[in-house]
């Protein structure tokens, strides 16, 4: 009985730990996509580099470009 | 827990897993509640086999059959994958969390994680079943013949010490 209780607590502990790690990892992965969505919803969406996500005004890359040129805006 | 009961639990878990793998067939509500029940069953499965996990983990880099090492790695991967399915499933839940009053704010990442980990869990579970096939067959035969079987299963005590097998190990059979 004691062994079963001990094993149950150990399994619950390991499971909660793993679940916490997955949740933190999943949430961390969620942040960049949420940022990208919020940026894409603005008028400047055409200036987001599709390769790096860079939105700096000094960069010329547009959403139609596959590479990040880093050129100044003309 | 006797081997026969263990086999019954594992068979039920496999059936639930297959049903939960096809949410379109059951509808999302049944899929979610069934998966929750499956999570509880998986925890019981882990508790029942926890001492084997501890024994093999303690001797992982010591004298140990390669099959046991592979078993442990597959089991650990299946566990992590199953936890990912459950956590991502709760994150995108439409029924279970709503019933508990909690709000969800799912993004595409959780959907992607759920889909990917569900496929991985199914694949690893099939590998898990294949690796334990001999035990499944022998336990089924014993149950069929009316013998309840002992506590130790072939995969419960797979540790070889000084070239000899412990009682109940696969080699002894």
Please, could you describe this protein's structure?
The complex is a heterodimer of chains A (74) and B (173). With 74 residues, chain A is mostly helical. Helix content of chain A is 53%, strand content 0%. Chain A is built from 1 helix and no strands. The radius of gyration of chain A is 22 Å and the shape is rod-shaped. The N and C termini of chain A lie far apart (76 Å). Chain B is mainly α and 173 residues long. Chain B has a two-stranded antiparallel sheet. Chain B has 7 helices and 2 strands. In chain B, α1 crosses α3 (28-58), α3 (28-58) packs antiparallel against α4 (66-91) and α4 runs antiparallel to α6. The chains are: A mainly alpha (74), B mainly alpha (173). Chains A and B meet through α1 of A and α3, α4 and α6 of B.
Short overview:
With about 70 residues, chain A is mainly alpha-helical.
Query: What portion of the residues of chain A fall into strands of 2 or more residues?
Result: under 5%
Low-confidence stretches of chain B: 150-154, 156-173
Helix-strand makeup class of chain B: mainly alpha
Q: Give the averaged pLDDT of chain B, no decimals.
A: 82
Cα radius of gyration of chain A in angstroms? 22 Å
In N-to-C order, the SSE pattern of chain A is H
Main sheet of chain B?
Answer: 2 strands, antiparallel
Number of helices of chain A: 1
Instruction: State the order of secondary-structure elements of chain B, H for helix, E for strand.
Output: HHHHHHHEE
Largest sheet of chain A: none
Oligomerization status of the protein chains: heterodimer
The dominant shape of chain A is rod-shaped
Classification by helices and strands of chain A: mainly alpha
Strand content of chain B is under 5%
Total strand segments of chain B: 2
End-to-end C-alpha gap of chain A? 76 Å
Distance between the termini of chain B: 21 Å
Query: In which range does the helix fraction of chain A lie?
Result: 40-55%
Low-pLDDT runs of chain A:
61-74
Using a beta-carbon cutoff below 8 angstroms, give the protein chain pair with the largest interface and the number of residues from each chain: A-B, 18 and 18 residues
């Amino acid at each position: 009985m004691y062994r079963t209780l001990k094993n149950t607590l150990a399994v619950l502990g390991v499971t909660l730990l793993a679940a916490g790690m997955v949740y933190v990892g999943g949430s961390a992965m969620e942040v960049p996509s949420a940022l990208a969505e919020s940026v894409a919803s603005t008028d400047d969406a055409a200036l987001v580099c599709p390769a790096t996500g860079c939105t700096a005004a000094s960069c010329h890359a547009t959403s139609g470009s596959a590479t990040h040129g880093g050129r100044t805006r003309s | 827990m006797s081997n026969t009961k263990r086999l019954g639990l594992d068979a039920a878990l496999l059936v639930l897993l297959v049903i939960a793998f096809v949410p379109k067939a059951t509808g999302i509500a049944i899929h979610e509640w069934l998966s929750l029940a499956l999570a509880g069953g998986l925890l019981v499965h882990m508790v029942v086999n926890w001492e084997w996990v501890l024994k093999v983990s303690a001797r992982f880099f010591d004298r140990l059959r390669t099959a046991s090492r592979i078993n442990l790695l597959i089991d650990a991967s299946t566990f992590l994958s199953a936890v990912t399915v459950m956590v991502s499933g709760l994150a995108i839940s439409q029924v279970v969390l709503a019933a508990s009053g909690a709000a969800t704010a799912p993004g595409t990442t959780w959907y992607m994680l759920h889909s990917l980990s569900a496929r991985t869990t199914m694949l690893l579970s099939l590998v898990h079943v294949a690796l334990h096939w001999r035990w499944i067959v022998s336990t089924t035969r014993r149950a069929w013949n009316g013998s309840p079987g002992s506590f130790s299963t072939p995969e419960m005590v797979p540790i070889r010490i000084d070239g000899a097998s412990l009682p109940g190990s696969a080699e002894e059979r």
